[in-house]
Design goal:
The structure holds two protein chains of two kinds. Chain A has two helices and four strands; from the N terminus they run E-H-E-H-E-E. Chain A is an alpha+beta fold. In chain B, strand 10 and strand 11 form a beta hairpin. Chain B folds into two domains: about 200 residues, Rossmann fold (3-Layer(aba) Sandwich); about 100 residues, no CATH class. Chain B is built from twelve helices and eleven strands. The chains are: A alpha+beta, B alpha/beta.
Chain lengths: ~80, ~350
């Protein structure tokens, strides 16, 4: 399954979470999404959003001032 | 025949009252999901975290955190565009500052009602308490919110329900009125006691509200923006930038947004491609955005102001780079003296 990239660079929380939530809506279970953002707050908010919705964080990393979170939607 | 589980949508701000309201209804076996609205004016931990000095504080979104503590889903809704009309044309006027609290509550309950209907939920919960807020949470305004939002008796306020006429969920027996509360007034003590009874030990402290529009300094800057542009309107970037930096308007047709420290400088970097900007190069100093169009003479004045906030404030000259799109120039200026930055320029 191809990975869907959600570009939230330049947005402050909670907008990256909203973009992620709106993209995830309607996607099939097990879809993979990669969120890219510049607000370090996503490293706290996205895991919280995943926990309350049953999604899984696969990986997270940062390069320079960009933060990446790879997640898999609940089946 | 078994009755189906009733479903309620709770407005979750991230504060204690909405958390308690949701918990009280969950305790009655109702399925609760949260809804949180992002207006652009929300006071987020992350907004404060822009500033370096606040970075030691935990950076969490309180609404998400509350949902996690309660074990409920949270739907965050972007209402930035629709909300403009609430801020610009409030039917019930502003509060002490540019806070249209009553119109805001009506709007949000109305949006929650729309969400409720679209998602097959039965009623709406808020954490409102009679007398808690001087503008929007008064005995007289409770029916106004219910009526003008369209929610009518599908709007249940669990923390003060016993001071109000019974709503449909109470009359139909979906919830037991006896297990709801009759809080009133500005005191927070009953809520804190209830939190303790319900085992909620950690919650956002109720200080400063959840909206920048209740803040006097922020409202002054927004009023200045409207005055300078000759119309009451804004874009998201405008209202985000009002949260950051030192705002100085030396002339009616332009203002400067001066980073106060490293964290704000990093944030303003993200706007460099959209705004003309100044940056000292001979000395360390703040990145400064220009909102408006100064003349060449006024650009020099702007550079002198920026130089004043640089490490070269006491030097004879400071070199400042000015960038406007593809045009770049270097200005060699004398920093203004402290008394030359007039108090009325500072927003």
């Amino acid at each position: 399954m191809s990975r869907i990239v959600v570009d939230a660079r330049g947005l402050l929380c909670p907008l990256p979470v909203i973009r992620l939530q709106d993209t995830a809506r309607g996607l099939p279970g097990e879809s993979e999404l990669e969120l890219i953002g510049t607000d370090p707050g996503i490293m706290q908010d996205v895991p919280a959003w995943c926990r309350i919705n049953g999604h899984t964080i696969v990986d997270s990393w940062h390069e320079g001032n960009q933060y990446h979170i790879l997640l898999k939607l609940q089946q | 025949m078994t009755q189906r589980t009733r479903k309620a949508v709770a407005l979750i701000s991230g504060g204690l009252d909405s958390m308690l309201a949701a918990k009280v209804i969950m305790e009655q076996g109702i399925h609760v999901e949260g809804i949180n609205f992002f207006t652009g004016f929300c006071v987020e931990g992350h907004t404060h975290a822009i500033r370096k000095r606040d970075q030691a504080k935990p950076k969490r979104n309180n609404a998400l955190w509350v949902a996690e503590q309660l074990g409920i889903k949270l739907h965050i809704v972007d209402i930035i565009e629709e909300y403009k009309d609430v801020v610009i044309n409030p039917k019930h006027c502003y509060g002490a500052n540019l806070n249209p609290c009553l119109d805001c509550k009506i709007f949000m309950v109305g949006k929650a009602r729309q969400w409720m209907l679209e998602n097959g939920f039965d009623f709406i919960i808020t954490g409102e308490v009679i007398g808690q807020r001087p503008k929007s949470q008064r005995r007289e305004t409770m029916p106004v919110v219910a009526r003008e939002s369209g929610a009518d008796d599908l709007l249940l306020r669990p923390l003060c329900a016993r001071n109000l006429p019974a709503t449909l969920p109470e009359r139909e027996g979906w919830v037991e009125r006896d297990k709801l509360y009759g809080f009133s007034g500005r005191t927070r003590k009953p809520q804190m006691e209830l939190a303790s009874q319900l085992g909620l030990e950690d919650y956002a402290q109720p200080a400063g509200g959840c909206c920048f529009l209740t803040d006097e300094n922020y409202s002054r800057k927004l009023a200045d923006l409207w005055r300078a542009r000759g119309e009451k309107n804004y874009e998201l970037d405008d209202i985000m930038l009002l949260k950051v930096g030192r705002h100085i308007r030396p002339r009616p047709h332009f203002k400067l947004i001066v980073a106060r420290e490293e964290g704000e400088g990093r944030f303003l970097q993200g706007y460099k491609n959209r705004y003309p900007h100044l940056h000292p190069i001979s000395h360390a100093g703040p990145l400064t955005l220009i909102d408006g169009t100064p003349t060449p003479d006024e650009l020099e004045l702007a550079a002198r102001i920026v130089a004043r906030y640089s490490q070269g404030r006491d030097a004879d000259t400071v070199e400042v780079r000015s960038v406007d799109g593809n045009e770049e120039q270097r200005l060699s200026v004398t920093p203004l003296k402290p008394h030359e930055i007039l108090p009325e320029w500072q927003l």
